[in-house]
Amino acid sequence: METVIDLWVLGAPDPEMEAIEKLLLDCSQTVVYAAASGKRVFAGNAYKADSTLPESGLDVERFSAWVECGFHGKKPEYIVDHHNPGDPGYGKGPSEFWQASSIGQVYQLLWNVAWENRLILKPTRDHIFTAAADHCLAHAYAGKCSTVDPEELLLWRIKSRAKFQGKSEELISAHVERARKAVRERAVETPFGLLADFGEETMPELLEASAREGIAFLGVGLPQRDGRRKKVLMGGSPEMISQWMATCGLKDVYGDPARGFAGGYLP
Predict the structure, then answer these.
(1) Within-domain flag for 165
(2) Do both 254 and 182 map to the same domain?
(3) 95-133 pLDDT per residue, tens
């Protein structure tokens, strides 16, 4: 039985979401953005959408797929996500990174949608790297994603991050190396593995550095559009993530121990 999807509603922009949007448009799908108060959602309010941009004229619940976003009091026909308990990709580790990633779930749904070119639908190398990097970057660098070569991923990440940020590859590489040195210097042993705590200090490419070093980091991000600041723990063991989520004392705590990440908002 073919899947019926009239509308794809996309959440906050990031490299994976850009790749998903292009894939959907290449497959002649109808795409809109989740919005709140008339603006496209960002990471901090992606699950508090109240409209779409542009207004679609279609029911966002009926025959729709929501990609990493949500509307209060509504439920879609299809969820494409891996951030929250109950999502199709939540709790899945590196061996299932493709099926668990949002872009991998989009591919799966597209296979069941009636469109004339589906027989040539095949994941690209860029899409496979995008899935691994977004779902479990540290695991991918550790060689735990079967179809991803860590050395190829490293080169691809520099190019893709430079393009997304509008910066040179040389500058991104320099930021990564500086952050790697800082992660190594600050790493301390905990009952759940090595952890580098950056306190209130921000530094470009900490996530990339942490993943490459195989050392978890705790840090605070830049203020979001609503003024809130987020603290994140990235690259930790399942035990480290679970313990931190239970004791961090932050607001709107989220995370997935199987993927090695967690976060919450400062009071």
Answers:
(1) no
(2) yes
(3) 999 999 999 999 999 988 755 556 568 899 999 999 999
